[in-house]
Structures are given as C-alpha cells and as structure tokens.
Write a structure and sequence with these properties.
Oligomer: single chain
Helix content: 25-40%
Bound molecules: pyridoxal-5'-phosphate
Number of helices: 12
Distance between the termini: 12 Å
Strand order of the largest sheet: 1-9-8-5-4-2-3
Strand content: 5-15%
Shape: globular
Length: about 375
C-alpha cells in the first residue's frame, strides 16, 4: 500500500513568471505613476491577447466574473436565459445579477457540456439568450448551438473561462457566439493574478463594454449607463504580459501530465475519462475523472486521497440548481445527468510543475482504493 506523503499536493498551483521579469515590469509603472484606468500595459496586454486568442474584438476586465456580467448587460436582454447547472457559481450569478431568469438545461454525459438535444424544448417566447459553458475545456457543440440560436433569434454568450488558448479547426474559440468570457484567475491555465476578457463578434459592442466597466461613464460630464467598476489595473496587465511568454510551455507540460494520467487510468472498469475531439487544440486545464460503478465511490476516493495528503476537488459539486440561494426556485432532479455527474466527478492535481511521479502516485492510490 502507498504511504501518506509528507508534503501536501494541491489540485493546482498558479503559473508564475520569473520574479525578476515581473519586477522589471514595475519600473515604468513607478515612473509614470499610472496605476490603473487603461494604462500602457493594459493596452499592450489587450493587443497581445487579441492576437494570441485569435479574437476579432476583445475587451479586458478586472476578473472573469465581471467580464461575464457586463457582457450580458451589454446585450440589453430581458426574460429567460438557458444555461447549465454544471458550472462554477459565476455563470448563473452573472445572469441573475442582470435581472434575468436562468433556465437550467441538462448536460450530456460524454463531455458535460449542454445537452443540445434538450435545448430547443426549453425555448419559450421569453427566452432571450443561451449561456453555455465549455466545461473543463471541452467545447460545446458550437455549430448546433449557433443554428438553434439563429433560428430563434437568441444571443449566445459563452462562459469560456476554461478554454484559454483553445482552437477549433485552427480558429480561436472566442469567435463562436456573440461573445465569450475568458478568466485569468490565479487558478486558471493562464493568469493575470485576477483578470478576464470578453471577445465578441460585433465591433460596435466595444464602446459599450468599455463604458460599462468604467461606471457607465460616456463623457466628461455624462453617465448614460448603470455600469460597474470592472477595470483591469496595470499590475494585473504586467503579470498577464509576463505569463503570456510562458503559457505555451505550461500547456505543453499540462498535456504530457494528462497523457500520463490517461495511460494510468484509461480502461479501468468504473473509471470514465473525457474523449478528445481531434478538431480541438486543448489547453489541458483540468483532469476530470468520473467514478461510475467503480470499486469505491467518489466521496471515498476523495477521502482516501486526502488521507494520503493529496487534495483533489469535487468540481463541480453541488450543481448550481442545488445551491442554497437557488434551491427554492429550482430542483437538481430537473437536470438528472448533471446531478449524477456532480456526485461522481473529481478533478485531479494538474499544474505545470507537478512531477510525473506524483501523477503515478495519485493513480496508484486510486487503484488501491478501488480494490477495497
Ligand atoms: C473561474 C470561472 C469563472 C469566473 O472567473 P473569475 O476570473 O474567477 O471571476 C466563471 N466561470 C467558470 C466556469 C470559471 O471556472
């Protein structure tokens, strides 16, 4: 049996550039004393990101949540928004905080994104938009979603928080839908400490997004919108610019760790891994594993790993429609697949510096736990 390890292994570890590189970036900030409000680094980061993400248009934000909330606000919607309960809290909160009503669509059991077969049945005359999530970096069926949205005149705003740098047929994922939100939170594949961006199709949205992240101010003496403070500051942009130099290397390392996990776990009865779509260039953001008819339950595996000082995550558990703040209006039974997967899934430790031996160790503990 494998022993408890001395030093804890956490599920993730933030990507950091060499300290000297970041410190070097700070000098111009001190020289100019320009700390925030769309400074030089903000503009440079925006330019480089637009190119890296192959986005037609892009606006930066202080974090991913604010980016999503303001992207939805910019669409000027009213009524119901179809979304998934299998996501991070931010997705539904961004809808509700815009005065809109989420309608939860179940997910498909293959890649945990929206079950597009169920989508049309949920569309009513009050539906105004769809907010799908590219869960764990698995792309939604963007083509079918586009067809459905077009035929019903609905906006599509993707929560693309997990898909930084991903491509479909060689094109940046941000070109799908009316808008996509990317998160640069410390725990994501790429970070600017906190940060986010919205990529969008219609260039006319640029001015509106800019105004909304700056209190709705539209001129020296005019405020035309009820905006928020969603501005990214220069320290965040500097971190983003530094990390952008290392993100390809980080994704490469993540990829080889995911391949290692797969080689150790694939084919074990009761363990399900996501299949890869050959049209997609992945970023390997997460290592989700579903335990379905395995020798131990998800919660047992979670506990055994914890006893070995390996800390994994029940991501996403609970489902959003089972949160205390939404439970009075929704029931998790309405989305049975999401409810089931949420009770069976774990995301395993994954970050560029994770030693390959630790991947082997995690898999060994999982195998032993399954033998009971
Ligand atoms: C991280 C995340 C967000 C929110 O992004 P922040 O930058 O942390 O505000 C939203 N949706 C999903 C699916 C996420 O994983």
């Amino acid at each position: 049996m494998s022993e408890k390890r001395e030093d804890p292994i956490l599920v993730t570890r933030s990507l950091l550039p060499p300290l000297e590189e970041y410190v070097e970036m700070l000098k111009p900030i001190w020289d100019s004393a320009w700390l925030t409000n769309m400074g030089t680094y903000h503009e440079e980061f925006k330019r480089q990101l637009k190119s890296y993400l192959m986005a037609p248009n892009l606006e930066l934000f202080v974090n991913g949540h604010m980016a999503l909330e303001l992207a939805i606000q910019a669409m000027e919607l009213e009524g119901e928004v179809i979304t998934t309960p299998f996501s991070f809290s931010s997705t539904a909160h961004a809808i509700v905080r815009n005065g809109l009503t989420p309608v939860f669509c179940d997910i498909n059991p293959e890649d945990y994104t929206l079950d597009v077969d169920m989508l049309e049945d949920l569309i009513t005359d009050r539906t105004c938009a769809i907010v799908p999530v590219h869960v764990y970096g698995n792309l939604c069926d963007v083509e079918r979603i586009e067809t459905i949205a077009e035929s019903h005149g609905l906006k599509v705003i993707y929560d693309a928080a997990h898909t930084f740098g991903e491509e479909l047929d060689g094109k940046g994922v941000g070109r799908w839908g009316d808008a996509s939100m990317f998160s640069f939170h410390a725990t994501k594949v790429f970070n600017s400490i906190e940060g986010g961006a919205v990529t969008f199709r219609d260039p006319k949205l640029e001015e509106r997004l800019y105004q909304l992240k700056n209190f709705g101010i539209t001129g020296y003496e005019s405020v035309e919108h009820v905006g928020a403070n969603g501005k990214m500051n220069e320290f965040q942009a500097a971190m983003g610019l530094c990390n952008l130099r290392y993100v390809e290397e980080a994704i490469g390392r993540r990829r080889s760790l995911v391949m290692r996990y797969r080689s150790r776990l694939d084919g074990i009865e009761g363990i399900r891994l996501c299949r890869e779509n050959p049209r997609v260039r992945y970023n390997y953001a997460y290592m989700p594993v579903v335990f379905d008819g395995y020798g131990a339950t998800r919660d047992e595996i979670f506990q055994v790993l914890k006893e070995h000082n390996i800390h994994v995550r029940k991501y996403f558990y609970p489902c959003i429609n089972d949160y205390a703040c939404y439970r009075d209006r929704y029931r998790k039974e309405e989305t049975p697949v999401a409810a089931r997967i949420s009770g069976q899934v774990l995301t395993l430790p994954l970050y560029p510096e994770l030693p390959t031996e630790v991947v082997d160790e995690v898999c060994q503990v999982i195998r032993e736990a399954g033998r009971g």
